[in-house]
Amino acid sequence: MPSGWERIGDVMVLRIPPAGRAHAATIARIHGQSLGARTVVEDRSGIHGPTRTPDVRMLWGDGTETVHVEGGVRFKLDVARVMFSSGNVAERTGIAAEIREGDVVVDLFAGIGYFALPIAVRVPRATVHACEVNWVAFEYLLENVRLNRAGNVAAHLGDCRAVAPRGVADWVLMGHFDAVRYLDVGVRCLRSEGTLVVHGLVPADEYPEALVSQVLDGIERAGARVDAMRGRKVKSYAPGILHAVVEARATSVPKEFSGVVPSVRPVTR
After folding, report:
1. Rounded-to-integer distance, Cα 214 and Cα 222, Å
2. Verdict on whether the full-model pTM lies above 0.85
3. Is 59 in contact with 41 (CB distance < 8 Å)?
4. What's the mean per-residue pLDDT of the chain?
5. Rounded distance, CA 60 to CA 79, Å?
6. 43 pLDDT band (50/70/90 cuts)?
7. How many angstroms separate the CA atoms of 63 and 61, rounded?
């Protein structure tokens, strides 16, 4: 039997051990009927590639499209075509609580609006630029903007390197495990100063130093000074591996600057 399950709207997602796969359909039916789901799918191997595509198969039910409601925000999606992690709810609501009216936010990896929509709904006078390269996720992003009447979201289809607005952001959200590779993009999005929220995977015994070091190095290489940093754990991703976040307050360094950029000790919470 599965050791646990995840519910996204009225779709249940199971991870079935190899020994149970011969009985997968029965296991799915029992779970679905007992817990009132419409559809049950198997998560076969997680999320893949830069477009974060799930590898699932339907075991029981009549469709994989659903609407998931979280903190008053509606997320429409197809669990077989785009990712959604209900385990990141504290991070989604927490970052929204840090945004203030009038702030400009650039979300470089918006997906279906995981971070952009909670911010837009809770802070209606903030402006949110949501960039997404996966056209399937982008279509759901547009639909979710309509569902939530989030008129303060500007959606941009394409690679964030090409479509992210420059020099406008008080906050840059980088919710992708390859985010450190895009720190130059994040820095270009900032006004003269602002905060970058950088996600990544880190060995548990190297937290937070490994991710902090990468973020600090990437921001400095992009021509900015790091003024303050803090790290936090989001959740356990795999045995010995953490999903972590570093928030870095950065200031653009003038081209004529020739001094030494100071390192900053992280504050872990």
Report:
1. 12
2. yes
3. yes
4. 89
5. 14
6. confident
7. 6
- From edge to edge, which strands make up the β-sheet containing 11-14? 5-8, 11-14, 39-48, 53-60
Contact 246, 230 (CB under 8 A): yes
Mean pLDDT of 97-110: 96
Could you tell me what percentage of the chain is helix, strand and coil, using 3-state DSSP and rounding each to the nearest 5? 30, 40, 30
Dump pLDDT digits (tens) for 250-259. Answer: 998 754 443 3
Q: Are 12 and 5 in contact (CB under 8 A)?
A: yes
**For residue 32, what is the enclosing H or E element?**
helix 24-35
What CATH number does the domain located at 5-63 have? 3.30.300.110
Better pLDDT: 50 or 55: 55
Query: What is the tens place of the pLDDT at every residue in 120-150?
Result: 999 999 999 999 999 999 999 999 999 999 9
Q: Which CATH class is domain 86-268?
A: alpha beta
Spell out the domain ranges in the chain.
Answer: 5-63, 86-268
- Per DSSP (E only), the strands in the chain are 5-8, 11-14, 39-48, 53-60, 65-70, 73-78, 104-107, 127-132, 153-157, 169-174, 190-203, 224-238, 241-252, 267-268
Question: Which pair of structure tokens corresponds to residue 205?
Answer: 């015994």
Q: What pLDDT was estimated at residue 264?
A: 39
